[in-house]
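Thread: "does anyone have the structure for this chain?"

Original post by V.I.:
We have the sequence but no experimental structure in hand. Need at least a predicted one for the grant figures.
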Amino acid sequence: MTVVSHEPARAAAIADLMRAGRETSRLSMVFRYAIAERLGLTVSDLECLDYLADVGSATAGQVAERTNLTTGAVTSMLRRLQQAGYVTAERDPADRRRVIVALRPERIAELARPYERFAERAERLVEGYSVEEVGLLVRHYDRMQAMYLAELDRLRSDPDGGGNRADAARSRPAG
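Reply from O.Q.:
Generated one for you, tokens below.
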């Protein structure tokens, strides 16, 4: 959806924000691929490990949902990460059908090392912001996350992914 504004300065500022967001997203992905390669992992592996670092432990189904992988792909990934010594996978005592996956604590420092310099630079950057500015950024990221989650839910539940424009164009009468 395009934001229409009658104020040229506001419209230009919004366009700049959207461009900066897209570029940040692209660079974030390139950075994630470089980190994964350095660790000998795939980006999906790295996303799984980051998710586990944030939540402590999760079921294989939760990992599948969070990484947007099929349960079969997650099973293979978790087996590979377990064999590499990154995670533990134990049957849930309350429901033996579920597997609880956790990051091995002794591997956390190794996984954090490639991010250390970036994290230090990010911390210095944020130190220059006021409490109100940091609050605005937190609200912005929270809202963006909610939007991403809502769109992922929509894409997962709609077989056309929200209406495939190429298919719609082909089915539209000429004229």
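V.I.: this helps a lot. The chain has eight helices and three strands.
O.Q.: and The chain has a mean pLDDT of 88.
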